[in-house]
Amino acid sequence: MTAEQKKEEQPEFIQFRYPREVPYEHALGYQSKFANALKQGRIIATKCPVCGRCTIPPRIVCPFHHVKQTEWVDQGQRGRLISAFKINFPMFNSRTGELQNWENPIIAVELEGGARMDGWCAETDPSKLKTGMLLEAVWRPEEERQGRADDILHWKPVEE
Amino acid sequence: MAENLPEISSEPIVAGVTAHSNFLVSTGATGTKFLSELRDNKKIMGIKCPKCSKVYVPPRTHCPTCFARMSEWVELSGKGSLSSYTVVRYKEPYMPKEPPYAYGVIQMDGADTGMAHILGEVDLDKIKVGMRLEPVFKEQREGSILDIDYFKPSS
Fold first, then answer.
1. Residue B126, C-beta contacts closer than 8 angstroms, at least 6 positions apart
2. 3-class secondary structure per residue, chain A
3. CA dist A103 to A82, A88, A122, A148, B18, Å?
4. Residue B51: what pLDDT?
5. pTM for this structure?
6. CA R_g for chain B
7. Using a CB-CB distance cutoff of 8 angstroms, which residues of chain B are in contact with residue A110?
8. What CA–CA distance (Å, rounded) separates B55 from B47?
């Protein structure tokens, strides 16, 4: 039996696409300052006055000491790799609504200022990633930045 | 680390965001049978539970009361009576019709469940629960529940 014949004999199976777009407004509130910094190509974090822990995304209250975090600290442009994982199957992209392959590993980075954040790694080969390796932020061109986390395109490994 | 950097604005930001989705909905063997009969033969099919004999439309694979697997198809006339309705008077994205229009639950003859669909060819102020209805099919059908254009009052 040829593949064509086999296909013809298969019963029909109705599927349909359900494309939807949901526009909404997201008020950043206290995090506006963080977004304004991203537009300038800077990463800033809130700092707890008790333990000194820096948080990204910024929060008004330290989750451990329940005190108001009023101090903002520049976190620099470099950080060290905490962890990484790579998605090996197509996954849904909420910005396009399509399935997409994700070549860049998703990583957690500890910044020079002490805060941790996640991002994409420029190195697509997971075997070349080592915990503790030095990384540097690669930014979108300034005119394209929108104050979003993906203003940082990815983190590229830096020779030490 | 960076010192003496310029001041960063605390000006509140309201970001305009659009969430996109493009799900692929699979109707399964039971749904495919129902939709292909609508498309090819303009027939509304129900499915009957072997245990309690309830007839479900739109069909499902299992009876929700008996958990019995259902496979006996029942052809319905499509005629029925209105058991509930609402009139849509505002516009939202993805509506199947231009408002104002009415949505109703149609209790079809020979079925034990109601089916929601659009009401057409009817004065919106004269819709009455219990009125008799019949389906109007589209000329171009594609295997969708909207192959039934609407239900209209039957004489």
1. none
2. CCHHHHHHHCCCCCEEEEEEEEEEEEECHHHHHHHHHHHCCCCEEEECCCCCCEECCCCCECCCCCCECCEEEECCCEEEEEEEECCCCCEEECCCCEEECCCCCEEEEEECCCCEEEEEECCCCHHHCCCCCEEEEEECCHHHCCCCHHHEEEEEECCC
3. 19, 8, 9, 21, 24
4. 96
5. 0.66
6. 23
7. none
8. 5
Question: Is the alpha carbon torsion for B141, B147, B150, B153 positive or negative?
Answer: positive
Note whether B65 and A54 are within 8 A (CB).
no
Residue-wise DSSP of chain B: ---SPPPPP----EEEEEEEEEEEEE-HHHHHHHHHHHHHH--EEEEE-TTT--EESS--SB-TTT--B--EEEEE-S-EEEEEEEEE-S--TT-SSPSSEEEEEEEETT-SSEEEEEE-SS-GGG--TT-EEEEEE-SS--SSGGGEEEEEE--
* Residue B94 pLDDT grade (very low, low, confident, very high; cuts 50, 70, 90): confident
Closest chain A residue by Cα to residue B31: A14
Question: Shortest CB distance from B32 goes to which of A12, A33, A94?
Answer: A12
Report residue B47 CA to chain centroid gap. Answer: 17
- Cα A145 to Cα A50, A140, A142, B149, distances in angstroms: 33, 6, 5, 46
B1, B24, B93 ranked by CB distance to A15: nearest: B24
Q: Which two tokens stand for residue B29?
A: 């063997």
Residue in chain B closest to A39 (alpha carbons) equals B8
pLDDT tens digits, A74-130: 999 999 999 999 999 998 887 777 788 999 999 999 999 999 999 999 999 999 999
- Among chain B residues, the shortest Cα distance to A40 is held by B8
